[in-house]
Amino acid sequence: MDIKQIQDLIRFVAKSGVNEVSIEQNDFKITIKTNQVQTIVNATVPEGLQYAPAQPLATAPVPVAAAPAAEPVADTSKYVVVKSPMIGTFYRSASPDKPLFVNVGDEIKPGSVLCIIEAMKLFNEIEAEISGRVVKILVDNASPVEYDQPLFLVEPI
User: Fold this and answer.
1) Which of these ranges, 31-45, 84-98, 116-130, 142-156, has the smallest mean pLDDT?
2) Checking CA distances to 156, which of 45, 106, 111, 119 falls within 20 to 30 Å?
3) Is 0.85 surpassed by the pTM of this model?
4) Which domains are assigned to the chain?
């Protein structure tokens, strides 16, 4: 991971509102912790790797997007909640001109693509693990999501 990627990661973490992110690769480990006042970066750089010190980032409080207003779903105990497996940006389609992966009322089966979550310029397809019918979409398109955040309510079939 080069210094540009680290700086991009710091900016992404600061914008997403996540408190802590740790990444471990072969001989490289980085932990980024944020709060409302500062960003702290702890990194172990392998020997022989040259790097230029990053310019300090000015962090400001990140406004939290209000939850989308939606009609309440009656009894949610019979539904399965599909949660985000990572932090990133939630997209309902592959690109703005492509059709949405799923809509409310669509039937899904294991392996069906539900959405895409972009993390560090990587687009990760999130697939269904159960068969069912999409009852509610809990996140707006192009919104930041956190790890384990509910994305969809699915009625199992």
Assistant:
1) 31-45
2) 119
3) no
4) 1-61 (no CATH), 76-156 (2.40.50.100)
